[in-house]
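FORM 7B - TANDEM STRUCTURE REPORT

SECTION 1: FIRST PROTEIN
SEQUENCE AND C-ALPHA CELLS:
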Amino acid sequence: MTGAVDPPEAAPVHDAASVVLLRDGPAGVEVWLLTRVRQMSFAAGMSVFPGGRVDPADADLALTGADVSALAARFRCAEPTARALLGAAVRETFEETGVLLTVPSADLAAARADVESGRVAFGDLLRDHGLAADASGVQPWARWVTPVGEPRRYDTRFFVAALPAGVEAADVSTESSSAGWLPVGEALEQAQRGERMLLPPTLKTITTLLPFGSVAQVLAASADRVLDAVQPRLQVGDDGAVSVLMPDGEFIAMPARPADSALPTAP
C-alpha cells in the first residue's frame, strides 16, 4: 500500500534550465551525462544533464537567434522568464561542460572555472569578447516540476542542443564526480541494471530520444514537442520505499544509491 506525500507547506518552486547535450556516435545519438557529487544538496549521486537554477543576470545576457515571444508562449511563461531560461541554458552548458554556445564561436575554456565560481560574470565575459549567447543552439524539449514533498523544488525547462563542430565537452564541473558521453540506449540499460541513478525527468527524457537516428532529427522534432508541465506525486510504500506517480498513472521507483564505482561512458 502506498500513500501520497502532501506536507502542509510546499517548498517554493524556482525556475531552472537543463540542457540535453547531444552528438552523433557510432551507435547512434549520444548524450552527455554528469554524475553529481554526493555532497550536493539536490540530486546527489544522480546522473543528470548540465543545468541549474536561473540566475537573475541570465535575463540580461546578449542573445541572438531567439524568438523569445514564441518560447514564452510554448512554455506558458512571461517573456523575461523565457529570456532568462535561454540565458541560463547557455551559461550552465558552459559552466558544466566548457561548451560555449555563442555567436561568433569562441574558445574561452580558460575562463570557465572563474564563471562557475562566480569570480567572473558570464555576461561580462561575453561582452568583453563581443559574443552573444546563441539561443538557436538550444531547442525546447520538455518541462518538469519537482513533486510536492521535496525540500528543493524546480520548474525545469529542458532544452536539446547539438555539440558544435570542432568543440569537445569536458569533465570539468566541481559539481560532478564524473561525466562523459553515452549512447542513449546504453544509459537506460545501465539504469535498469542499477549501475546508474537517473531521476524520473532524466529517465523519461532519455527515453524520448530513442526513436531518433541522429541529432538533426532530434532538433527537428523540437517544434512538435508538447511542453505542458509534468509534475509527478511522491508515493511512500509501507516499507518506506519512495516512488513517484506520473500523471498518466505510471509508478516509477526512485533509484537506490549504488556503491561508488566508475560508470562506463563513451570516449
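SECTION 2: SECOND PROTEIN
SEQUENCE AND C-ALPHA CELLS:
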Amino acid sequence: MDLETIFQTRNPIIGVVHLLPLPTSPRWGGNLKAVIERAEREAAALASGGVDGIIVENFFDAPFAKNTVDPAVVSAMSLIVDRLQNLVTLPIGVNVLRNDARSALAIASCVQAPFIRVNVLTGAMATDQGVIEGCAYDLLRYRRELGSEVKILADVLVKHARPLGATNLTTAVQDTIERGLADGIILSGWSTGNPPSCEDLELASTAANQTPVFIGSGANWENITSLFGAANGVIVSSSLKRHGKRDEPIDPIRVSQFVEAARQGLSSQVPSAQVSSMKLPSQS
C-alpha cells in the first residue's frame, strides 16, 4: 500500500467524521439533512485543520449490528461520502460499524473512495455485539468480484473487544497481513480514546515488516510524537473534538494543534521517516 500515492504523504493523519444516528438506529432523529450538514461541517473543519485524509463511520448508531447493517444505512452513508468528496479534496475512507466490511467495500467501490477500515478481518473477537468472526475470506473475494482496488486497513485485536483464547500480538499482525491480505493494519488501545502502548506499536511495526501501521485510537498532541515513532500513520477523532469529548463536534483549532504537533514530531524523528520511506515504495 503506497501511502504517498493515496494521501500525498508517507505519514498520513486521518481525521474521523462520526455521523449522527442514521435511519433505523435507535437514536435516529428522522432528519437526514441534519446528519449531512453536520458531516459537512466536520469534514470542512478537518480539512481546514490540515489532516491528510478522512474516514467516515456510523459511530452514533450504537448499539451496532454485528455484521450486516440495514440497507438504509448503506444508502445514507453512500450519499454522505459522495457529498463530502464534492466538498473537500482529501481522500475519504469508510468504516461501517461494527463489522460490515462488505457494505463498506460496496460503498467505497461505488463512490471511488480509496480505503476502508475493517474491525475484525481475521480471528474471532468477543465484543458487546457477541462473537465477531473474521471476514477476510468473503471480503477479499468480493473485492475481486467488484474489480475494486479499495485498500483494506484492518484492526488487529480491535478495541472494545477481547480475543477468544490466548493471542500473541506478533502472530495476530502477521496473520492479518499474510492470511487476511490486509493492505495496512491498525493498532488501538482497549477502548475509544485510549492509545496503544509504544511497545505494542513497535512489536506490530516489526511484525508488519513493509505493511503500514496506523495508530487507531487515543492519539493527542501530547503523545503523538512518541506514538509516531513506531507507526506510519494515525487515525484520530476524540482529541480533535471540542473539549476533547467524543460527543462534541470537531474543533478546527484542536485539529490544527494536533497536526502541528504531529508534523513537528515527525521532523524530529529522522530515522523513523527514513524507515517509512524505505518501506512504502515496495508496496502495491
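SECTION 3: OBSERVATIONS ON SECOND PROTEIN
DSSP finds ten helices and eleven strands in the chain.
The first strand starts at residue 13 and ends at 18.

SECTION 4: SIGNATURE
Preparer initials: ____
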